[in-house]
Every structure is written in structure tokens, then in C-alpha cells.
Please model this.
Amino acid sequence: MKKEYFETNKALWNQKTPAHLTSKMYDMEAFLAGKNSIDSIVMDKMEDVKGKSILHLQCHFGQDSLSLARLGAKVTGVDFSGEAIKTAHQLNEQLGLDATFVECNVYDTEQHVEGKFDIVFASYGFLPWLPDFTEWARIAHSYLKTNGRMYLTEFHPTMNMFDWENPKAAYNYFHSETPFEEIVQGTYADKDADISSKEYFWNYSIHEVMQPLLKLGMQLIDFEEYDYSPYDLFNDTKGEKEGKYRMPIEVQFPYVWSMVWRK
Ligand SMILES: C[S@@+](CC[C@H](N)C(=O)[O-])C[C@H]1O[C@@H](n2cnc3c(N)ncnc32)[C@H](O)[C@@H]1O
Model:
């Protein structure tokens, strides 16, 4: 896995983090006042986490990790962005919670995190930054206790196929070792943020996520696709009232998938 991909993406996530802290999407005021930052697609699938140990991979600045900690879980969050982990530590302290945050490349987690967990969790936007999902799955699986569960939720690969600026199919549905490469302006949570940087990303079809986990002997116990996004990220989507964003067209897309696996 090329170091350049990780270094480039890490630099971008370090720039995105401060912009996210002031964005409407991450709504820090509500979060600090006690709002659970995790959307209902994830929460509806999640078991009662009270007393459970959770490894949260690619935890960003820890909003979701700390939301789980507020529900009584013992959470360890991993992310390679120094800015994100610094903020996660600050929030953990400010809120008087006992989550642990580790700054490292997710592929190096085994050098930094010990033990086994009841739950491994990753959501929205964890997958595009992974050059090798098979290796990610091996690592994630290795941290689960027997009967432990893995909760994964992600934007649907079909959505990633489109160039939404001038709508047309522009990207392959299937994974390729060669990443897509783009210069990003702003960030998904604040399109006007003063950010201009390169990013590398990959798409994964549904079976390309399932196969490595099946080959590890994991059992898929729940799988769902959703005809809306809980976030207003795609062009012209409407649905603020319900919190379910869809494009105002007759043909509907799958926006999100969710999987629950048991070891
Ligand atoms: C969109 S966030 C996902 C978290 C969550 N859905 C959120 O929005 O708060 C993606 C996170 O993945 C992290 N990331 C990307 N590539 C990584 C890698 N190779 N190792 C560790 N973290 C990585 C980024 O730093 C970023 O914080």
C-alpha cells in the first residue's frame, strides 16, 4: 500500500477537522448539549451498548465514539488524523467520559491497540480511504471476541459511481487497485471551507465488502439498503423535515447500506 496515498489523505483530513467542528452538519452545540450524533440507520441496528467494549475504526474527531461512551460503552477510537485525535481527546476530557483515542493508520492498529472487543464499529466514509478492504477486514475481525458483532454502515457504491456536478456515470462500480484521484475544494460538511487538496479514494461493490468477511468465517446476520441518505451530501437532495434526503427524481438510488456481522 503506497505511503503517498495515506500521507495525502491524512493531510486533507487534518484540514477538514477544524472545518467540521464549526459546520452545521456536525452541530457541535447540540452534541455538547447531549445529542447523540449517531443517525437512526446505525442506532436502529446497534445492540444495547451499555457495558460493552467497542473498537471504533476511523472515528474522526470522536463524536460517534463519545456518543457511544455516553450510552455506557467502553470505547476505543482509532484514526490517523492528528487533528481529529487531538480534538477527540479534548472532547473526552471536556465531557468527563472515559473513551480512549489512538492516533495511527488503521492498518497499523495491531501495533497500538491490545485486547478483544464485543463490538467493532465503522460508519459513513470509512471505506473510500481503504486501499485494501481484505486486510482491513482481517484486522477488524482479529479484534472481535467470539460472538462479537461488527456493525458497518456506508454510502452505497452506486452513489459513488456518479459525477454529481454534471450528472453522469463517471466511476467504476468495482474496486480497482489504482485509486481515483481528485483535487477537493471545501469539504462535504462545509462546501465553502478554505480547503483545496488532493485526495485518493477507492470504491467497493457490495460483494467486495462481503466476500473478505465471509472468507474469515463471519456470519452476516443483517443487511439492508436504504433509499435515502441521512445526510444532505448529494446534489439537490430534499428531505430536511424527515432527515431523509433523496434526489427529486423518479428513479431512486440506493444511498446507504448497513451490515451486521457475528464472529
Ligand atoms: C468520514 S470520517 C468517518 C467517521 C464518521 N462517519 C464521521 O463522519 O465522523 C473518515 C475518517 O477516516 C480517517 N481515515 C482515513 N484513512 C485512514 C487510515 N488509513 N487510517 C486511519 N484513519 C483513516 C480520516 O482521518 C477520517 O477521520
Summary: The pocket of S-adenosylmethionine is lined by residues 6, 9, 13, 58, 60, 63-64, 79-81, 84, 105-106, 123-126, 129 (CB under 6 Å). The radius of gyration is 18 Å.
